[in-house]
Amino acid sequence: MGKFILRRLGVMLVTAICLTFIVFILTNLYPNLEKVAKTQGNTRMTDTEVTSWLDNRGYLQSMPSKYGQWLGVVPGYVIEGPDGTVRARCASKGVAPADAPRFCGVIQGHWGQSTVFKEPVSKIVAKRLGLTGWLMLCVLLVMVPGALIIGVLAGMREGSKTDRSLSAISILTTATPEYVSGVIFIAIFSSSAVGLKWFKGTATSAMEDITFGNFFLPVITIALYGMGYIARMTRASMTEVMTAQYIRTARLKGVSFRNIVLKHALRNALIAPFTVIMLQIPWLLNGVVIVETLFNYKGFGWTLVQAAGNNDIELLLGVSVVSVVVVLVTQLISDIGYVYLNPRIRIS
Amino acid sequence: MEPLNGFEIFIRILGQLSPVWIALVVTFILSIKFKRNLGLYGKLFDSPIGMIGYALVMFWVFTAIFGGPLDMIVTHDELSQISGLKNKRPGIAVPNAEEKELYSYYLLGGDNLARDVFSRMIKGSWVVIAIAPLATMFAFMVGITLGLPAGYFGGKLDTLLSFLANLILAFPVILLFYLLVTPEIVETGIPSYMAAVLFIFPLIFTTILLNSRFHTQPTLRTPLIVVVLVVMGWIYLSTVSEVGSKISFLPHFMDLFDVPGGILVVFVSVVFVNSPTVFRIVRSLALDIKTRDYVAAAQTRGEGPWYIMLWEILPNARGPLIVDFCLRIGYTTILLGTLGFFGLGLPPESPDWGSTINEGRKLLSIYLHPALPPAFALLSLVLGLNLLADGLREESLKD
């Protein structure tokens, strides 16, 4: 088991480095840099001015070296410009380049400065991640129990009326992406055209104070889309378990249907959905971006859109690192959990 | 003129869609009549769920074909604005319609630029129907060409390809879109290069497919492959070579068609996102099927590995692949909508459903009619594809 986890961790680390390198390349292409120079410096710069601006700030070094500096394994640049000013990557405001530390990258905790929000990236990411954390928590609290209950109820008697209607509902929810269900929900429950006005159409106020009224619609919008898929997986796994030999044995011994479902079938039927739930978390991230944009909830997903839309390189890199790590960690947990939950693998 | 009431709008929309109804009825009558001779497709008509799904899908396919290139169903031009109809409610009469020879009503109202919501929705279906199935097919070609050898040979090749697939899968889709579909990246030509790589897979696939089958009869194989390669190669070159982009080498008279830049980028990124999942499915199917007796029999017969992969394993994996194909078209539709929703890739005035929903949502608390029709259209198409996949799965399990 220990060796397995170590191996997985190793693969994860390599994947993380590859992915961040790809993001780094894609965000540091020359057209992006040119745009940065023009927005930070002067919009009417000539091409040579742009080049010298970028050169003075270390943007024109080779890609691996820049990536190493950003990661914090290569010493940060110290460049003396043609005008005599010395700029160092690690020199923050008010610190002389000579006194600056040699390494400053993600590993040392220097995530850079956002050009849009004028704040350190680490601070923005932490704050926005906290807001999205609440959203995710509520979504999981609604989605997981809901999906499991629907799946188990549908799967315990295959082909029954309950099964048919619950399966139809889960197909419907998987066919409704967040931007469709969100728009429909806002139209029905919060627009003045319909006039119900049960919930709020924006979740901006939920950033300070979460209430049922302002948080219900975003949460249910994300939860519904993921729910159908998990419910269908649970149903499939439940129907498979219900036809197993040991269930038949239990039936023939006269165990009540209730006890068969709760004591014999449920545990084995929940192994497969566990993996699915963990693998759904990266998908939730997508939903979060859409819903936060739709409901104007300024969390992590909203930040991603702002960073990408405004060419905020450092912030986009920070956001990417976090989301890639989230995805990889959930994959790791899902692998380990699968091994741990499944006695057939665990014991052998 | 008086605005129409709800019932009149409904009747008029049904009337506008009459070519679609005729085509649907003909399709269903023919299919049900000959369903015993049509294999899996015919069996679909034994399952009510599959039939409902198929009807929904075909409704949109016919609407897209009649409304898009044939210009039949739409009542107004999807881009033209008529002053005074901004955000007006469904059924509003068009002022001076008879003088200008226009259709006299905006059946589903006007959007915030005073364009006809109904016509935009119909035109939008063509964008989806033209891109989604084709992009899914490309993703399948890529996934199959790489997944079969990975599953069949295993070893280092499998490790490498699986690692790459997992790499792409670990990217949050929206981040990937934002990285690939921005104007700055398009300027560097990366999407064009990716298109050049991804679009070559159908060529490789067909060549190997034909070669592995007919390599024992060189007199048939050589001309066949040459003809296929020339035709597909020409289409490939005209698609990839684009005037004004980084890859532009084909002289103008040889360039068959130009794909509008935005569409190509969207297409490439959708294929790129879908391929790794298809790869994983094909790989696991190949791993499973290669232990069967008929594969062992083919190996003993001395067949080459590509023959076994493409003519023994692939046909026997078709059931799950067809089902996944339907589901994946639905997923691609959702992805296209997501791109439109964030205003990525497609031009801002494009009538596709994602962009229209995005525009409509901004005034959603006051005007519902611009956002809801495309939302329900997208919902019904994806629902139809999911039901169709479900019906196919049930029927294919029955044999």
Q: Name the shape of chain B in a single word.
A: globular
Tertiary shape of chain A: elongated
Main β-sheet, spatial strand arrangement of chain B: 1-2
Tally of alpha and pi helices of chain A: 14
Task: Please provide a written account of the structure.
The complex is a heterodimer of chains A (348) and B (399). Chain A has 348 residues and is mostly helical. Chain A has helices spanning 2-27, 30-40, 47-56, 63-71, 121-156, 161-174, 178-189, 212-242, 245-252, 257-269, 271-295, 300-309, 313-341, 343-347, and strands at 78-80, 86-88. Chain A contains 14 helices and two strands. A two-stranded antiparallel ribbon of chain A has the order 1-2. The longest helix of chain A is centred in the middle third of the chain and has 36 residues, at 121-156. Chain A starts with a helix and ends with a helix. By secondary structure, chain B is mainly α. Chain B folds into two domains: 6-124 and 370-396, no CATH class; 127-330, no CATH class. Chain B has helices at residues 6-16, 18-33, 39-43, 48-67, 117-153, 155-169, 173-180, 183-188, 190-198, 201-214, 218-240, 261-289, 293-301, 305-316, 318-341, 353-361, 372-398, and strands at 92-93, 105-106. Chain B has a two-stranded antiparallel sheet. In chain B, helix 5 packs across helix 10. The longest helix of chain B has 37 residues, at 117-153. Chain B is globular and about 80 Å long. Chains A and B meet through helix 1, helix 2, helix 6, helix 7 and helix 11 of A and helix 6, helix 7, helix 8, helix 15 and helix 16 of B.
